[in-house]
Amino acid sequence: MISAVLPTYNRAPIAFVKGEGSWLTAEDGSRYLDLGAGIAVNALGHAHPALVQTLTEQAQKLWHVSNVYRIPEQEKLAEALVDKTFADTVFFTNSGTEAAELAIKMARKYHHDKGTPRAEIIAFEGAFHGRSTGAIAAAGSEKMVKGFGPLMPGFTHLPFGDHEALKAAVGPQTCAVIIEPIQGEGGIRTLPDACLKGLRDLCDQHGALLIFDEVQCGVSRTGRLFAHEWAGVTPDIMMVAKGIGGGFPLGAVLATENAASGMVAGSHGSTYGGNPLGCAIGSKVLEIVSDDAFLAEVNRKGGLFAQGLESLVARHPKVYEAVRGQGLMLGLKCKATNTDVVKANYDQHLLTVAAADNVIRLLPALNIPDADITEALARLDRAASALEA
Ligand SMILES: Cc1ncc(COP(=O)(O)O)c(C=O)c1O
Fold first, then answer.
1. CA–CA dist 134, 146 (Å, integer)
2. In terms of domains, do 308 and 274 share one?
3. Total number of domains constituting the chain
4. Alpha-carbon distance 317 to 335, whole Å?
5. Which domain holds residue 255?
6. Which atom in ligand 1 lies closest to the alpha carbon of residue 94?
7. Three state DSSP letters for 24-65
8. Domain holding 133: CATH number?
């Protein structure tokens, strides 16, 4: 008999009842060290006092009003994002998937309104942009699209990081290029800075819009507020979600005035997107994670963690192959089967997340204490030894 919850997930048989910082408590009272952070969502860990306070205060004032009215909390968060990024304007969603939908719509509407409609959007193998019909068409992998056709047309898929293929593909017919500066689900695959720069140039040359999907790599995860800042290039449109709500469902599309020029009143909307509760929390998260001292700590902690992981790989060459990633968006390319490694980590009460390319992801809270990094490394070590045995 089918379970009451639609069985679309391969769930581990653990349920958590409480969270604090980087630790989760299971139903049986045992504690787990959380290196998944809800897959890069709990940017400040569980039950961060400032977020609990913000949520509680806002909940007592106003949760939700429709977007048919002005929403001051939304305006405040939008202004902060505009202030801190390339963007001139922001639309709020509830998730990364909805951000993908708007990014695609915005790009197509831009060219439509310029009088030269273009449909083709170039995307990359290994990409993940969400689970809507548009987002799966954008990612294009067999696993995600099989059985769900006909798909939204207009996507071309290229190998990740193959600049020659890109040069051949981008042309006057290209509406937009959509890319994650660091692929998350794809296995913590970083696009070299030179590739991002080359991509920007190609888009400029052909009048195509550049869309960065920073749903997983954004919001200070890599040690800069947004990952593309490392390369010194900016997109025309950017998708944000996950970390920006710190656990509250919140997403956003950021855009330049030019790229957003087609999005006039009535062209898009959302019931919940940008409600006062979500935006109050988003503003608090952004205030904390965009602070220079906070970012310096993410970089320092990321370096500390990566250094420990390098020696872990050296000690367990049969289990691990290499360390990937930047800041606290880290991955371990495995020699053993990654899902077996994740299970061995569960046995050590350590939460890690599998990704494609036989990688496990380490996406801890950005404020993870050094002592928890040390503890995580010890648990990873014990799990690898157990696998070897
Ligand atoms: C890069 C990227 N884009 C989009 C999404 C979709 O976001 P959501 O699950 O919030 O719809 C994800 C989710 O994992 C993601 O990692």
1. 14
2. no
3. 2
4. 8
5. 50-289
6. 10
7. EEECCCCEEEECCHHHHCCCCCECCHHHHHHHHHHHHHCCCC
8. 3.40.640.10
144 within ligand 1 shell (Cβ under 6 A): no
Ligand 1 pocket, residue 372 CB under 6 Å: no
Testing ligand 1's pocket by substitution, the residue of 8, 41, 214, 216 carrying the most ligand atoms inside 8 A of its CB is 216
**Does residue 385 form part of some domain?**
no
Span 287-309, average pLDDT: 98
* Average pLDDT score, the chain: 97
Q: Using a 6 Å cutoff on CB, does residue 123 contact ligand 1?
A: no
The verdict on 180 and 194 lying in the same domain is yes
CATH assignment at residue 38: 3.90.1150.10
89 is annotated as contributing to ligand binding: no
Residue type, position 88, single letter: D
CA dist 290 and 287 (Å) reads 6
User: Do residues 41 and 245 touch, judged by C-beta distance below 8 A?
Assistant: yes
Among the candidates 236, 256, 289, a domain finishes at 289
Q: Is 97 annotated as a binding residue?
A: yes
Scan for tokens 């500066």, then name that residue.
181
Atom of ligand 1 nearest to the CA of 130: 6
> Which two structure tokens, joined as six digits, stand for 12?
């581990």
Say if ligand 1 is within 6 A of residue 183 CB. no
Mutate which of 39, 94, 124, 128 for ligand 1 pocket (most atoms within 8 A of beta carbon)? 128
pLDDT tens digit sequence for 182-224: 999 999 999 999 999 999 999 999 999 999 999 999 999 999 9
* pLDDT at position 228: 98
Q: In which residue are the tokens 């310096």 written?
A: 296
Q: Residue 369: its pLDDT value, please? A: 98
Top mutation candidate among 41, 98, 129 for ligand 1, by most atoms within 8 Å of CB: 129
Domain termination residue (choose one: 230, 259, 289):
289
Compute, in angstroms, the gap from residue 100 CA to the centroid of ligand 1: 9
Hey, what are 84's tokens?
């801190």
Does residue 192 share a domain with residue 226?
A: yes
Q: Which residues pair with 324 in a beta bridge?
A: 331
pLDDT digits (tens, 9 = 90+) for 220-278: 999 999 999 999 999 999 999 999 999 999 999 999 999 999 999 999 999 999 999 99
Averaged pLDDT, 95-101: 98
Q: Are residues 170 and 78 in the same domain?
A: yes
